[in-house]
Design a protein that fits this description.
Largest sheet: 5 strands, mixed
Strand order of the largest sheet: 3-2-1-10-11
Order of helices and strands: EEEEEHEHEEEHEHEHEEEEHEEHEEH
Helix content: 10-25%
Number of strands: 19
Distance between the termini: 50 Å
Strand content: 25-35%
Shape: globular
Radius of gyration: 22 Å
Length: about 350
């Protein structure tokens, strides 16, 4: 029933950094969105503060659902001038008492690039994948719904679904995935395939050694006749997110001259006599996880824009006098980057 090239199957690939979805047989995915969700809890309105002067983003998707588990959020030490802009991570006694009420267990989800980068009061940023493995299925399901219903506007009941899974995906995750597709979304047919096998078929090879450098995991996978040789699989956490942290430490956490990174949401811009001026805003109800996510987005843009890999074996002394490259930070400051362009990746 679903065999042949004429079948319009749906394809979805949930990665650590991005989620891709589209139709089988096409060259590019229809949807590419961050694999991160904004979550407000405790009956919060999830709206911008009154002093923001920014209108709500209509394209952000809001979903309410009930859950009993708390999502573990990334926390970090904030820069000095931004400390006043971010609320304390430890809730007050009154907040803890309110969170015990059943109504406060509801969650409101914000998904998509605009949905998670638009600052809202008490909104946490959650990444549902850890080391390439799904840990929060409720968040992943909301991302699926957003991709299929908001962007592609399709019903999973009418299309077979092909799901790309990591090579080291545990059996319990495969069982949960099939349970969601068949029992909840009533998918007519589903096929799970290793992402390394898809990569080898994409270049027309049935025998290959696939090197996959993702956001959370880097893996090498041998593929033979469309099957993964599990004994030869190797993986490490040295991947994109680790490079982001290394680059942040090299550029903004130097012991001699530390540089403060101000994310865009804290900046208020205005034109004065033709000149653009920026000032620092304060948002007392901003969570530490949202602030961290916005800072790392700036660092990731620096990495993707100007960072390089050395042509030969890397020696720090050989790159001390390398020409510097300029990068303009969100607050207008010019960052001159020299050997750090190579040092972070090497």
């Amino acid at each position: 029933m679903y065999g042949g090239d004429e079948v319009g199957a749906l394809v979805i690939d949930v990665g650590t950094t991005y989620t891709k979805a589209g139709y089988a047989g096409e060259d590019l995915p229809k949807v590419v969105i961050p694999t991160a969700v904004g979550i407000t809890r405790g009956g919060g309105n999830g709206k911008q503060s009154d002093n923001s002067g920014v209108r709500a983003v209509s394209s952000a998707m809001e979903v309410e659902s009930a859950s009993k588990e708390d999502v573990k959020m990334m926390t970090t030490t904030l820069p000095p001038s931004a400390t006043a802009a971010v609320s304390e991570a430890t809730p007050s006694a009154d907040t803890k008492r309110k969170m015990k009420q059943p109504i406060n267990n509801s969650r409101k989800y914000f998904i998509g690039s605009q949905g998670i980068t638009f600052r809202r009061d008490n909104m946490d940023i959650c990444k549902p994948l850890r080391n390439g493995i799904v840990k929060d299925w409720e968040a992943v399901e909301q991302i699926w719904n957003y991709a299929f219903t908001k962007h592609m506007r399709v019903d999973l009941k009418e299309f077979p679904v092909l799901v790309a899974e990591p090579t080291f995906n545990p059996p319990e995750n495969r069982k949960k995935l099939m349970e969601l597709l068949f029992e909840k979304h009533n998918s007519p047919a589903t096929f799970l395939v290793k992402d390394s096998v898809l990569a080898s078929f994409a270049v027309g090879k049935h025998v290959a050694l696939v090197v996959d450098i993702g956001g959370g995991v880097t893996s090498t996978v041998p593929v033979h006749d469309g099957y993964v040789l599990n004994k030869g699989v190797r993986k490490t956490r040295m991947a994109g997110e680790m490079l982001d942290v290394a680059l942040e430490q090299l550029l903004f956490r130097k012991k001699d001259t530390p540089l403060e990174l101000v994310p865009p949401y804290l900046l208020k811009k205005k034109f004065d006599k033709g000149a653009l001026k920026t000032s620092l805003s304060t948002f007392p109800n901003t969570t530490a996880s949202f602030h961290r996510y916005m800072c790392m987005e700036v660092v990731r843009d620096i990495k993707e824009s100007i960072c390089r890999v050395a042509d030969s074996s890397f020696n720090p002394k050989d790159y001390e006098n390398v020409p510097r490259t300029s990068y303009e930070l969100p607050d207008g400051k010019i960052l001159e980057i020299g050997s750090e362009r190579y040092e972070a990746s090497e």
